[in-house]
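Project channel, design review

CF: Before we commit to the Paenibacillus faecis constructs, I'd like one complete example in the thread so the newer folks can see what an input/output pair looks like. Taking Glucose-1-phosphate cytidylyltransferase.
RD: sounds good, go ahead.
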Amino acid sequence: MKVVILAGGYGTRISEESHLKPKPMIEIGERPILWHIMKHYSFYGFNDFIICLGYKGYYIKEYFAHYFLHESDVTFDFRNDNELITHNHTAEPWKVTLVNTGLDTMTGGRVKRIQKYVGNEPFMLTYGDGVSDVNLTELVEKHKLYGRLATVTTVQPSGRFGALTITASNEVKGFQEKPKGDGAWINAGFFVLQPEVFNYISDDTTVFEKDPLEGLAKNGELMSYKHEGFWQPMDTIRDKNLLEELWKMGRAPWKTWGLDVVTNNEK
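CF: and here is what came back for Glucose-1-phosphate cytidylyltransferase:
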């Protein structure tokens, strides 16, 4: 199953870094967040990627053009016609298709533009700026079980601030550090989609989260996979610093590669 990653937005809310590079190339632990996302998919056996480019897309193309070289031990022998000798490498078994989907194309339009690369088969879709420890095997299994056109991973994000428990007489009874928000489940990305979903997308101006998803929901074709584990988008510098700190401390929940993942059939 191919994995489509939306990586073409301007990233204006994290402009401190996105003015230099596309948002998916902003680094966590000296690796682009895009790399972290792909490593997570690869851990579950999904290694065929289609990346939708837009803003500064050449930056992503150059990264993958040199990826094998950067991940290898090499010798440059200038005495012998500049011979390049590759000794060993640790590059992942990825197939990466990079598609220019337009500078100002909306999310739905970007998905529509890569239809020919997906073909007439189910595919996965996510955003290039958020990490999670979502169990992708379970996600696909649930999608197949539901038998609908689309499944979206949903989460209940924590509130931004801690909350106090206060009595009617204004006595503080407790403090909860960053509790869940208002109880609503939100779109966390990590979709599984049938090819019929392309029929819900009109053109470059289509926002995937609007008419397509709303149309699928109206027709009873959109299901939710509730994820109660870790999920964190990188919308701001504060988010970036949080992810960086978790990585440095060795407490990055999204670093599933190299770990044993327990299947939770309760979801």
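RD: helpful, thanks. Residues 261-267 have pLDDT under 50 and may be disordered.
CF: The chain has one domain: 2-156+184-249.
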